[in-house]
Amino acid sequence: MEQRLVCVIILGFGFMLLFTAFQTMGNIEQTVINSIKIDDPTFQGDGYTSLAVIYALLSISNWLTPSVLSKIGPKIAMLIGALTYCFFILTFLWPQTWLLYVASAILGAGAALIWTGQGMYLSKCSDESTISRNSGIFWAMLQMSMFCGNLLVFFLFQGKTHIDNDTRTLVFSILAGLAIIGIVFLGALRKPNQSNLALDDEILDRQQGPKQAFINAARLFFTKRMLQLSVTFIYTGLALSFFSGVYGASIGFTKAIGESAKQLVGLNGVFIGVGEVLGGVFFGLLGKRTAKWGRDPIVIAGFILHIISFVLIFMNIPDAAPFGDTDEVAFIKPPIAAIAILCSFLLGLGDACFNTQIYSMLGGVFARNSAEAFSIFKFTQSVAAAISFVYSSHLGLRVQLGILLVFGILGTVTFCFVEWAVKQSRTMNSNECETVDTKK
């Protein structure tokens, strides 16, 4: 097995374990916080607000991360970021309102480091012929994190309408332990063997100072292609906040589903993970073939899957479900648990279609500016996610689905425009080379 592929797999294991902890936290945070408030009326924290703080700080910090990475490199950046995730989880063992928001802010800054570092490291492990494969493998391994943590929640929350303190302590302790093991894997990462071109890029990265890294990121952001892609990034941020924080909680708050409603919060996360992993495995194993087809058919397929899920959610889950326990019903009476979980799978599979192709685009087309490109991606996505978590506390489920539909259409169209422009540019360059060879 080639050494660079080994690096991708170790990176995937580290993120899988770390995000087994965090993605499970994000899925159950609002449900757990509601239970904490019942046990301790002095606790006034809010899960949606916490997630909004995380993504707001993440968006701001992303403008600084290229400068930081130019000094410390991607591995150290990922390790520092991983420690902030572990700290956030541990704070739930001693729930305090002020500590929740402080830890959320720290995590937001750390998340910018870990994700930009990850994008830069993955780019250095890849070239144009392997970036689709490596992106798919990494994405599949990352999203396997949805299985273990949420299966744990599924069994521990079984039959519970209130998540008691002992159950919360057990869940958070296990998740913190998994996060620490993930940090160990990230610490074992090695410098990948690179081609001469990649080595030249690395030398350029070292010579580039923090100020120049920031200037380059700003310049890249205002290029035509990146501005168009930013619309796609916004949609992925809105979709991320919906399926990672809002939808699972909405299922758990829908009393008409039955006594299993709270238990389905964990199962929701599992089936989102099933969709994410299947998408990652498919595009990883078929990376060379999908590269021939192009990225646009995959993104279009992902959006069609999301449209189907939005319609089913609209029919099945009541409008007031994001706000707390409700006796309301939607158009399907009573709501069907199997349809709710099917939508979880479709949301995950559609998200994998978008994200694997975005990673492929940024790691391939913007390989020379990988740190800046991934920081812009995470900045734009995080701003959208933060805004979404803010309005999630005020807007009903149907309005939220309408917003997702509009931005999904725009994001899919703009991604296709960029992909078609890239294909046209490659065709023109190929034709120019053939003309030169003919003259020779």
UniProtKB/TrEMBL annotation:
**Superkingdom, according to UniProt?**
Eukaryota
- Provide the protein's localization: Membrane
User: Where would you say this protein principally sits, based on its record?
Assistant: membrane
State if Transmembrane helix is listed as a keyword: yes
| Record's keyword terms, sorted | Glycoprotein, Membrane, Transmembrane, Transmembrane helix
**UniProt KW Transmembrane keyword:** yes
The record's InterPro entries line, in alphabetical order, gives: Ion_channel_UNC-93, MFS_trans_sf, UNC-93-like_regulator
The record describes its membrane topology as: Multi-pass membrane protein
Q: Which GO terms describe its cellular component?
A: membrane
Question: Which family, according to UniProt?
Answer: Belongs to the unc-93 family.
Return the protein name. Answer: UNC93-like protein MFSD11
